Amino acid sequence: MFTVLSAQLKAVDSWNGRARVRSLVPALIQGGGGPLATLLSRHALTPVYQPIVALQGGGIFAHEALIRGPKGTSFEFPDVLLRAAAAEELGFEFETAAAAAALQCWGGLRDPGRVFVNLSAAVLVRLFRRCGREALSEMVHGFGVAPRMLVLEITEHERVDDMDELARVADEVHLAGVSLALDDFGDGRSSLRLWSQIRPDIVKIDKYFTRDLSQHADKLKTVQALQQIASIFNTALVAEGIETAEDLRVLRDLGIPYGQGYFLGRPEPEPREEPLAQALEVMRDRRVAVMPQSGRAVQAGFLRGVSVVSAPTLSQGNSNDDAAALFHARPELHALAVVDGQRPVAIISRTGFLNEYAKPYYREIWGRKSCMKTANDQPRLVERDHNVDELVGILTSEDQRYLTEGFIVVDNGRYIGLGTGDQLVRSVTEVRIEAARHANPLTFLPGNIPISQHIERLLDSGAEFVACYADLNNFKPFNDQYGYWRGDEMIRLLAKLALTHCDPLCDFVGHVGGDDFILLYQSANWKMQCESLVRTFAGRARELFDDKALAAGGITAEDRHGVTRFFPCTTLSIGAVVIRPNEFFSAEQVASLAALAKHDAKMAGAGLFIRSVVPSDPSL
Fold this sequence. Notes:
The protein is α/β, with parallel strands linked by helices. The protein has 3 domains: 45-284, Alpha-Beta Barrel (TIM Barrel), CATH 3.20.20.450; 303-430, CBS-domain (Roll); 440-611, Alpha-Beta Plaits (2-Layer Sandwich), CATH 3.30.70.270.
């Protein structure tokens, strides 16, 4: 068996830095044990260094030290080493030996940059229990590394047994001049409490959220939420797992300060002076990323935004005369709720009740009897936090009582008040209009708000781009002739073709509304793509006309002034404007200019029309 010496080894010169380090780091004396114990006794662990890159400028911010075993053996890989450490119960010895190897090698390389060294929370706490802050400073200096250039990266967050003690250790680490980072935030083991308590200088976003980020709007929203949290805690973010140019471009444009991944640089024995050329090309490219869209309308508003009528209630023991008295006292009430305690059990429609109550002899026979006679004992109950858009079922229900009676609003099943059908119609309409500003409900393409946001990003980037406004010719008579269903089909056709004539990584397609679309090109071949889109649409749109219209070359219908005349088959006009750097300063200016170009295109009848205008144009 081998003997583990944790703080007993002393060098001849106890004040020598490196000797002092050896007295703090566990050493294994060969004499038996498992394969990992043998590796540790032979000091067979070697570090490699992966760059962490500043995404805005492309410079190297730091390197992370990653440990490796003997090359060409199964122990070369970290997952095997970790499994062996767990099997041989040498987790503490393995981690401290790996950290010492990383620091010793980094000090020998004399690289002036920062180095990230991994330690689990449990090992960090245990080290401080044994050694303390001064020993940490002495250890780091002993390897020739300045404490301010060291970042201790805390891993394996699920092993934190005492969060408060870890927070105290974090304070000591900071007092020693060493920075702290949290690894793999968002992998299910990390928590906001850990972030809040230890106040790390840096948090690494788990690669789950960065992988294929350019294709998933939900991941984008998560990363943006982490940015807000990082701002609160004054924490820098590192995006891990960057493996594609598309994800790198999105992360750069989001403003994530640092990144790490194979696309930027692989782990190597010596630190890199700059990222890989492929990454530098992306980071220095002024074209902006096309942010992933959700592909659906934004979530509708909640009932809290709808006016709720505060109304008195009846119980099942109340009479019809009681109901009549309330209706006469409150002429504005459209209905009354019947409750059992706080739980609604029925609703009484004003119109239906008063029609019955006005019948001959009704008061004499039924006046003192239960008000439940004319009540609807299956009222529509709606929780106050219910999604408004999901209440459309009330409007489309075959039972039209719900439109006149309205519905009962409850909070966790308890009565709050009443809602009316007209309020519901108004609220659903407003919600859908607002949703359409974000994502068009017909095509699910970005609406006016994301269009404006993307134009602003293009302007801020200082890159040249082309703003195109696409509109259908003779669409209204087509829609009037064949109905809105086929009209919607033609609009969806245009949306589909517009997407296929754009590079999804650098070109943006938005749907303003109706048959109006915005295309924002950064591709160099934008003109060819627009011309092809015009031709392709003209051919595909003919498939939506009947044989008689195709034979005639169009349809006869009324124009906007009610005059019957002939309209050729529907085609596409595109007005284009080249937006050069520093010529325009708002999305509104660009959108207005693109709209003028579209008007010119329709007047010229040329398919694609390129408008040349300077910012001082009085028409803007």
